[in-house]
Amino acid sequence: MTDGDVAAFTHLGSSVREALSERGFATPTAPQRLAIPPLAAGEHTLVIAPTGSGKTETAMLPVFDDLVADSPEGFGALYVTPLRALNRDMRERLEWWGEYLGLEVDVRHGDTTQYQRGKQAKNPPDVLVTTPETLQAMLTGERLREGLEDVSHVVIDEVHELAASKRGAQLAVGLERLRELSGSFQRIGLSATVGDPESVGQFLTGGRPCTIREIDVGSRIDVRVRQPEITDEDQRLSGELATDATTASHVRFIRDLVAENESTLIFVNTRQTAEALGSRFTRLDLPIGVHHGSLSKEARIDVEDRFKAGDLDALLCTSSMELGIDVGRIDHVIQYQSPRQVSRLLQRIGRAGHRRDQVSRGTIVTTRPDDTLEALAIARRASAGEVEPAEIHDGSLDVVANQIPGIVQSTGSRHLMEIRDLFARAYPFRDLEESALRSVLSELHRNRIVWFDESSERVETTGGTWQYVYANLSMIPDEATYEVHDIASSGQIGTLDERFVTTFGQPGAVFIQRGEMWRIVEIDDEEERVRVTPIEDPVGEVPSWIGQEIPVPEPVAQEVGEIRGTVGSQLETGADDGAVARDLGGRYPGDDTTLLGAVSGLRKQLEGETPMPTHDRIVLERQGRTVVLNACFGHRTNETLGRVLSALLGQQSGSSIGLDTDPYRIELEVPTDVATSDIVTVLTETDPDHVGTIVELGLKGSDALAYRLSQVSAKFGALKRWQGSGRMSNERLLKALEDTPMYAESIREVFHEDLDVAGASRILSRLRSGEISLETIRGRTAIGSAGRSGGKELLVPENADASVIQTVKERLQDDRVTLLCTHCREWYSRTKVKRVADQPECPNCGSTRVAALSPWADDVLQAVQANSKDEEQEELTRRAVKNANLVQSHGKRAVVAMSARGVGPHNAAQIISRLRENEADFYRDILEKERQYARTKAFWD
């Protein structure tokens, strides 16, 4: 034992040192050696170290020491974790120390019983483990506020996770509200590796001085990148797994890696991948469990306990396992496909090892050339400690709206400037402008959430404040969940969240759930139910949605471009693939086979005598209407550039432009009258300073913005949750709220999370200056064809003739309709027009005699189902049958036409009989009928 080892524990009192001996802590771990001295001195401290390296004890040993020396009357310390599962873990880990030292440790979250909550209010435990949301609730309880007056320490676990979210912005304000009660308290942040420790430290302390103690994680990891080769066994295995040989090679390679180690975590990037891989391992009867956020709490705890007990050899997991849930010792971490970001790789690989600061070992299993090059770049950057910064949400106005009611509910009337000063002490709101605060207060006043007297500038509660506070403790969006049912068996196979259904859900769309592919048959918004049919032979099927992608940062994509450039230059000068691969292996951690495969993939690009897209060369390729810009600038920058191109080209052509992006490509579907030179002109002549304005104009009519706006508006109390026929259309919502703080916050959020305006502006500037070259070619290239073409979003141009027709189309597609079977007379469903199948069919009897009625046509619905001989009801039934005949003959076109204002079966038949081949002309005919109805409706009564 060295003097340095001993020194850390000498900062602790005799009781805690005795507990250390009893617990078997002979020498401090690396984070304990670094961090215990400043923590024991009471300094605000950020501790950065791998998961499983003893960060919890590092933070809590000095806290326990202080609480033993000065026993609190109320809550002495709060330990805040982002996950309830971590609450359970932390309590189990801390209870032993509490019992030994005579301190009470308890946990409080949303599921804590009323009895236990009352007990905590009367006799607060010395240490309370809780969540950010439960802290919000505690700040409004009278008895609990008395207990919080004694808080002297707050530990924020996984602070990097919170710093980059609105939950974190809410917590930052909550800590300043706590400080008003308790006075200054010590703040301790525990974090995995982050790229900007100073910013995270400022977030933790509210801009006050912060001591940073960091373990160099990059030097303690050993990562290999491997792309499996297809073997004879894989050819055999593919039949057993009902998959192709490539996927079989991945499953076989992972199986063998798991067999080489005692306990392995297998990380994947989406729940869909977890489900798909999990089903393959199940077929092989391997002891590998699946763990992700969509599983029930009981299912997650079961696989955690079985893994910890050694009954499972591996856990297949998503980001749910990145955080510090205790599942025992982990020998090896497998990352399936590129982790997309350096920070994620370090968090995931960092879960392995940790016996006396042992090296963490892991393998990235890649699946295609882009994937391999990206994984190599990320692995090198991880070892060099080149980590992405935490992107703190600065000035999120819905968090301001969320916190003001809680502030006045708990403390009574407050002056506007008092509230402004409170927010300004929280780091994410250090630059909050008074004008923005006033706009939020005016909106809350208008919605009767708080009372804002502009003359006295005081804010007070209203009758709705208390109800709002307790209904809005969380900044996690309150999304509806749709049940997914197999139409054949009627059994439930899982759930889909509202964002998926709103954005991607339509009949015919394909998605993966439970490791199987399903096609959507029908979506019932009323019942929040999606009916599906299994795809028996998935070969050739491409899912419409593969889960929300982790965005690849620009620096990673740029390094992939640099690798391409270096390899391309070597190949062009005549070097053979093996020599180039060996040279690449001197800088990147791949085996010979993987590196040779990556080099061979890049050679294919050069075989057609086409230029290599690199970090400073964009290659524009075109075949027909499909244009691909090969651009190594990452997800967000490419998405922003793509939106600029779509908006400006759409403006010029008067047509919508299809857009799809990935970190290395911007794919456009353009009208034939858009010349390649038009695209080049937009790229080289658009003013870089105008990027933000252009993108915002393009966002104005999008479903993505409308969805964000609905979530943000809920935090302002501006609209109730959209339910049933009471929902506003996206178009009406965007128009109604355009000049409000909710709209401004929704735009800010899209810019913050999905786009990089500064990055796109920088690329346009570099194109202008010649730092980035632009080359154009005809036809497709190997690299350009390696992207994907799913999930196109049509971006509508402003002020174009075509945009009027597009608006009519979007409105009609977004209208609601009641489908009713006039054959069996039993089945009906309320849904949106865009979700109606091309040929509607009754799931009960299979008939295509399905009427498309107004969502308010309950009288027709009742008449058909009653089958009455009443003259009036018979007439309503005849109308429905006429309607159904039209739908049976012409399918969805009839549904669309009859959804228009004042267009019944007769007018719809006239429109359809024109046999318009051009879709725009079809909608023009509908628009003309609507205008005719508007001119004459006064005479209809």
Automatic annotation (TrEMBL):
The keyword Protease does not apply. The keyword Cell membrane does not apply. SUPFAM superfamilies: P-loop containing nucleoside triphosphate hydrolases (SSF52540). Residues 253-398 form the Helicase C-terminal domain. Residues 36-212 form the Helicase ATP-binding domain. Belongs to the Lhr helicase family. Lhr-Core subfamily. This is DEAD/DEAH box helicase.
